Amino acid sequence: MKSFLLLLACLAIPVAAHHSFAMFEMTKDVTYEGTVVEYRWENPHSHIILKIDGGPNAGTWDVEGGSTAIMGRQGWSRVTFKAGDKATLVGHPMRDGSKGVSLFYAVMPDGKRLYHDIARPTSEGAASAAK
Amino acid sequence: MLFEFFHYLQSTEFATGLRQSDYAFPLIEGSHIMALSLSVGLILLFDLRLLRLAFPGEPVSRVMHQVMKIALPGFTVMFITGLALFFAQPEKAARNRYFQAKMLTLVLLGINALVYQLKFYPKMAEWDSASSVPAGARVIAGISLVFWVLVIAFGRIMAYEL
Amino acid sequence: MNLNHLWQMSYDSKTIDILRNSSLGIPVIQSFHLIGITLLLGSMVALNLRLLGWGLTEIQFTALARQAWSWGMAGLILAVASGFLVFLPDPARYAANHSFQFKMVMLPLAVLFQYILYRSVIRKKTAISEQRLVLVPVASLTLWFCVAWAGRAIAFLG
Fold first, then answer.
1. Which of A4, C27, C58, C114 could form a disulfide with B157 if both were Cys (CB 3.0 to 4.6 A apart)?
2. pLDDT tens-digit map of C89-104
């Protein structure tokens, strides 16, 4: 009985999924320029689905932000983007090469940066806290 | 076909409203995690009694009934908040490998509890104050401990799959 | 108070990098953090509800207090140790988070109160066994759940 249950438990551990852990390379900042397909303002994470035509990053990307409360405090809102908008997003790509990004900040048309959260870059490039 | 139904559920106003509210999702998810202490936290104490690692002087049947006073309402809260969390993003959850593993482990825990109910509960009073608990009951307690740890882990790791 | 130089040590550290870059590392450590919290809060709930006259009322009080204390403290140690390992790979982000700061203030308060509570309550209860206490268990539960909710708020409130 015990061994049967333990065997079932082992089968419960999933074989590597298409997206394994959503681990992002947090030390890499990559710029993605494209067109917004979908802007999802929601919890637990907001998402910007970005389509890039041509170039090394061509394809459809899922850029994941933070909670609505945290992003709201950084200046984001339900209407910051809409489908069809052009967007420039800087973020950390997923380790496994799939098209997922952890949002660092967006560069708005007037040049202003909208950060995901309170972290800001240091001169060395590693993220550190705002004062 | 099931995933199509979940996709539909996810696009309903209710589900969208849950996700877009600044407070609904965090409060529901927070309550789900806080209620762990009222449910799993108490069950752990009973499992530890079966393994004679806690309350060795107290009758097993008494520990069980007392623990259930808190754990049963606790699990009710877990179930309701869990359901609400699922309905906020049903398709995303259903496709998530760790959510699937969590649900499977919960089913196995249910079977584990059922085995205890059918096989050991009727005779429990006989070994209430005995110096050792039947081997089968100890195995069930051990499985319960391990599987609850797995449930908590799967629940946490779920968030790391996009 | 700018502790960036301290945090930079973590970002530069090769050992912490191993933890930071492993796909399993941080989620698993966070799971242990949750397990520690479950054990700790479960024990605190059991003990404090009893002081309020609810829940585990038929278990002998000194046995309950002793078990809740032992397992609760085991949970606390697990939570603190794993919490340290959650903090270490990304210290700047956590240190800047207001909910985290609040949690770090409430946590020692909760521990201190629990330590004082435990001793005075054990003494009181063995002398006046049927007495129901209100302020002390309510304060204890409030402190512990403040810490727990602040932890949750780190990701949602910032």
1. C27
2. 888 889 989 999 999 9
Reported as a single tens digit per residue, the pLDDT across C51-83 is 888 999 999 888 898 899 999 999 999 999 999
**Confidence category of residue C133, pLDDT binned at 50, 70, 90:** confident
- C11 within a domain of the structure (yes/no): no
pLDDT score of B35 more than 80:
yes
Two structure tokens written together for A120: 């800001």
C1 found inside a domain:
no
Nearest-Cα residue of chain C relative to residue B21: C156
Among the partner-chain residues C7, C24, C158, the one whose CB lies closest to the CB of A69 is C158
Q: Is A95 on the interface with C (CB under 8 A)?
A: yes
Average pLDDT value over all residues in chain C: 88
Domain span at residue B110 reads 2-160
Cβ neighbours of C138 (radius 10 Å): 13
Full residue range of the structural domain in which residue C72 is found: 24-156
In a domain, C68, yes or no: yes
Q: CB distance A44–C97 less than 8 Å?
A: no
B contact chains, 3+ CB pairs < 8 A: A, C
- Model pLDDT for residues C19-34, shown as the tens digit of each residue: 877 878 889 999 999 9
Residue A15 pLDDT exceeds 90 = no
Q: Which domains does chain A have, with CATH numbers?
A: 23-129 (2.40.50)
Task: Give me the mean pLDDT over the A27-33 stretch.
Answer: 90
> Reduced to 3 states, what is the DSSP secondary structure of residue A117?
coil
In angstroms, rounded to a whole number, what is the distance separating the alpha carbons of residues C65 and B55? Answer: 10
Number of domains making up chain B:
1
Complete DSSP assignment for A1-43: -HHHHHHHHHHHSPPPPSS----B-TT--EEEEEEEEEEE--S
A75 SS3 class: coil
Could you give the ipTM of this predicted complex?
A: 0.91
Does residue C128 belong to any structural domain of this protein?
Answer: yes
Tokens of C75: 């949970």
